TrEMBL record:
InterPro entries: Nudix_hydrolase, NUDIX_hydrolase-like_dom_sf, NUDIX_hydrolase_CS, NUDIX_hydrolase_dom. Residues 3-133 form the Nudix hydrolase domain. GO terms for molecular function: hydrolase activity. This is NUDIX domain-containing protein. Keywords: Hydrolase, Magnesium. It comes from the Bacteria. Its cofactor is Mg(2+). Pfam families: NUDIX (PF00293). Belongs to the Nudix hydrolase family. It comes from Streptomyces subrutilus.
Amino acid sequence: MRTPRQAARVVIVSPSGSVFLFRENNVEVGIHWLPPGGGIDPGETPQQCVRRELREETGWTDLEPQRLLCTWEHDFTHQGVPVRQHEHVYVTTGPRREPVLEAPDIHWQWLSPRRLATLGEPLWPPRLPDLLADARDRPVHLGLLA
């Protein structure tokens, strides 16, 4: 049985179209790339979560989620607990810059659209290049993905 977990992330796109992502290695899913974000705290909205996580993970306080890009669910192990995570993924534009806060064990990179499309390692959310290329006004609901 998996514990339900709510999370929110924000995809930051630079004026040139590059995307800011972290590269992580989870014991269950292995290496994958994902935008800043994390678990939604009790009483917090997904948008508030995104702002807090951006501040905690990058030190940036000047970016706001502009629109909901997609939602999706996936199973993985978080801090030793099997979870089914429901994610709200927002998108925003921002300058191409380095994080203010940099942890030595966190790898980040600005990826060009071409590099993002040919990465060869899993992306959270899946289909991220397609989602960014599709300029819909309404979010895409990807559902439960393995």
